[in-house]
Amino acid sequence: MARLLPLFAFALLVALLGFGLRWNMQHDQREVPSPLIGKTAPAFSLPVLNDTTRQFGSADLKGKPYLLNVFGSWCPSCVDEHPVLVRYAKELGVPLIGYNWKDDPADANAWLARFGNPYDVIVTDQAGRTAIDFGVYGAPETFLVDGEGMIRLKRIGALTPGYVEKELKPAIAAARLAAAQSGK
Amino acid sequence: MRIFRRTLAAAFALLFTLAAHAVQPLDFKDTAEEKRFQALTRELRCLVCQNQNLADSDAGLAGDLRREVFEQMRSGKSNTEIKDYLVARYSQFVLYDPPLSTSTWLLWFGPLLALAVGAGIVVVIVRRRQASLNQPPAAVAVASQEEDW
Q1: What confidence tens digit (pLDDT) does each residue in A17-73 have?
Q2: Are the C-beta atoms of A161 and A84 separated by less than 8 Å?
Q3: What is the CATH number of domain A35-183?
Q4: How far apart are the first and last CA of chain B?
Q5: Does some domain include residue B100?
Q6: How far is A31 from chain B (nearest CA, A)?
Q7: Is the ipTM of this complex over 0.90?
Q8: Burial per residue of A74-85, b for 16 or more beta-carbon CB atoms within 10 angstroms, e otherwise
Q9: In angstroms, what separates the C-alpha of B8 from chain A's closest C-alpha?
Q10: CA-wise closest residue to A38 among A164, A153, A163, A132
Q11: Interchain contact A143–B (C-beta under 8 A)
Q12: Spatial strand order in the sheet of A66-71
């Protein structure tokens, strides 16, 4: 029995390695969970893309759930994500706000002309102050804010059809239900 | 030789300008402020390139966060207040020196725990060996047999 001990120890180490490899494949190592989930979304008021005289922000969205999608023409993963937004934007039933992060308006327009514009409103922020308030650290990121102004969900990285169906749609349904109930 | 020296000097000058360009210049009022800023940003993690600190990182977001830290220092905020501001948005992950809390106790005491377990194992082995040496020769034979793997 004592002779087999090193073999057991080795098998245990191999199992640990296998577990670690599997875990790493299923989890994004760079993902930092947001401390803002379940808290009030930061207030913002930013110039609208192509209409810089107009400001748009959290005050205009009061009482209704919305999605805030962080994107930039410089961001490669946003290109991967964009078809998902274009496909689902209308059927999600909540306003989709584009947050054009640290981008040149001309580049953003060219990018949208090429890949399509699924957004209801696009706000621009070259200084990136609002991104810091939302704890954004990479594009794309997507926030679901409910009617109470609370952040319900944060997606770090590209939205996928699987994520939209399994996570986003149920969360939106719950947020809309809560908003409808509090409205009555 | 002189040409070589000149080239070397030029190369060094170039190296320093490149290094200086990596970080956008901030307008420090004195060296004390600059030192405080450098020390603070070295303790903060860049979230884009996660194994770099804010002071060294070249990422766009790191530049924004450095500016934010600088402006908050100017407005009279303490280091703790600035760290709290970042932790509220980016979680304790931004701190290279995380405080002791329920979620970090394993990080803090894990190595000590491993050391204690190792020491325990060593003590047990040594005691057993001593006990077997004090036994009659038959037991010693078993011990030496065990050693050959």
Answers
A1: 999 999 988 888 788 889 999 999 999 999 999 988 899 999 999 989 999 999 999
A2: yes
A3: 3.40.30.10
A4: 64
A5: no
A6: 9
A7: no
A8: ebeebeebbebb
A9: 37
A10: A153
A11: no
A12: A51-57, A45-48, A121-125, A96-101, A66-71, A141-145, A151-156
